Amino acid sequence: MKLKISSFKEPKHTGSFTCVCWINTEDVFSCGDDHKLYKWNLINNECLLVTTFPEDVYPTDMHLFPKTNTVGNKQQHDVVLIAAADGKFHIVNHNGRIEKSVSAHQGACLVAQWSPDGAGLLTAGEDGFVKIWSRNGLLRSTVIQSDVPCYSSKWSPDSSAILYTKGDHLVIKSLNSNGKSTKWKAHEGVILCTAWNANNNCIVSGGEDGYSKIWDTFGQQISVSVKHDQPITSINWCPAGDMFAIGSYNLIRLCNDNGWSHCLDRPSTGSIYSIVFSSDGTQLAAACANGHILFAHIIDREFSWKNYVCRQISRKVVSIKDILSDQNDQLDYPDRVIQIALGFNHLVVATVKQCFIHKLTSWNTPVTFDLKESTMIILAERCLCVIERAGISVYSYMGRLLASPRVGSRPETIGRAAVSLGPDSLAVIDQTDRKVIYVFDLPTGLVVRSSTDSTTTKLTHKMTVSKVALSQIGPVNERQIALLDYNKDLYVVTVKDSKQKFFKLGSQVLSIMWSTDTELLVGLRASSVVAWCCPRAGQPDWLALTTVSKDISDLGRNPSIMSVEEGVVSVYRGNGSLLRVSLASFPEKLLKHVAANMWDAALQLCRTVEDETLWACLGVLAWQHNQLAAAEEAFAVIRQYHQVCYIQHLRNTIPEKL
Q1: What is the DSSP track for 386-417?
Q2: Each residue's pLDDT tens digit, 365-399
Q3: Domain spanning 11-150 has what CATH number?
Q4: CATH number 1.10.10.60 given to 190-297
């Protein structure tokens, strides 16, 4: 992955400029010390002077009114909030006319930010004050009074707290009357820039010490960058939360959400004062000290599935290759590509206006349908899920709309960890109460329901849930969901069970993923990969017998699972390198035999391999499927004699039923 950077030959701004923001995915506002507000169009490469501000207006920060589904109309969406060096903030309409000016601070007003819901705004200044205002510019409260300048302040994703800098410390201040503040030392120098992402709820900061660091909301450090030669002057998250960009003197770096670097560019621009991603997360704009504005497009994104590799090679071109047959092709699209998903024998590409569904057997004849501002695509065996700003939609691979479940007012803030798609179900964590999970049944054509069945199931966990994952095979009434909570404990529950019970499988689990072919659940711990071959076993001793673990060194911080195929687990280490671990190939084969009701083949596999874990899996599965002869042999091999005696007792007392 890398950035394709472009800029105009001659700068439009005279002198430095510090403010840039996206109006939509193709238009950008910029303003600087020359008092001019420009509008840039990336399609036509045009620059239009919108207005010239009064001579005493020196902008320091700029923020566009958030696009919400409930607040404001189209005109309000183009309202811009501008902070100025004279201590004022200005509310400016889309034509450049100043609607309102408010004196907010003694000294420069350094920060001006709309709240995520558009109901208010905050400002921070050189006087060390942080203030909250109504949407119309009326003072609501002075939240912070400090003796040092506040260089950066951000709203929390739910508008219930604010993050602000105080020298080399970061502070999260709750806006609830009984809420507590969290304060920690984050850098060895003054902190210049921060960002708080709604999807992963993580904070990234940059300071004069040359480091960028990622934090959780408790002040725990997730990662730290290498030391840069110059201070970090700008930083921002991609809306999806899977990457962020940092700017420094003649430097722009794109990083993964774990902190490791995708790419590094050194444009001759001086310090980069502001970096902003577009709403689709594929472009960024940067304000530079020499008056230039940089535009960058993210390319060279690579995706793989089995023997297929897909790579975006330019804004509108995607290449795909079959490694086994060496067949390859380039797919040209009429608009800019923003999302790519590869899996389940399909390649799905979303552009600015349309979605293209390619079969991997005939990728030159796609199925298409229209889209509006898609932010994520998730694939399953029989359907695909598209998350847009307007809502969530589930389609068949023929392009037919199957369902549009309602999950809240801001679907675009749903992160990849908070949603999971199965062959006939969709699970979403409730964004207002993250202890609640909603599972929606999907009309895929293969689901048979009675008139009393509910199409939505509500699961309530005792702790806040951080990740959900639906199993990918089996009938809908046996669908399992695995979840990780904030304590990093792993639980599994059968969705359609009349008495829903959360079974705890393990603790200190960092990442989870189901196999796409079987009910094999794989998880990562700090220094090992673990596979639960029979997650619905229930009994603790059976779980222990059917669990496979392999120690792995140097996984780093926050490793993640990329795929599970044929018992081979692909893991991204904390430093971004890819590791493949052969963990449970024989258990996967056994699970496939059981799913196909091939008990003789399952017995033959266990007799050939002679592995106790495999025999334990067979015993548990045979017991669950009432195959008592196979279960008796398996439990005898692993010396579970009490279970053997119980099976013999059943066979002797009620033989006619067995």
Answers
A1: EEETTEEEEEETTS-EEE-----S-GGG--GG
A2: 899 999 887 888 999 988 999 988 888 889 999 98
A3: 2.130.10.10
A4: no
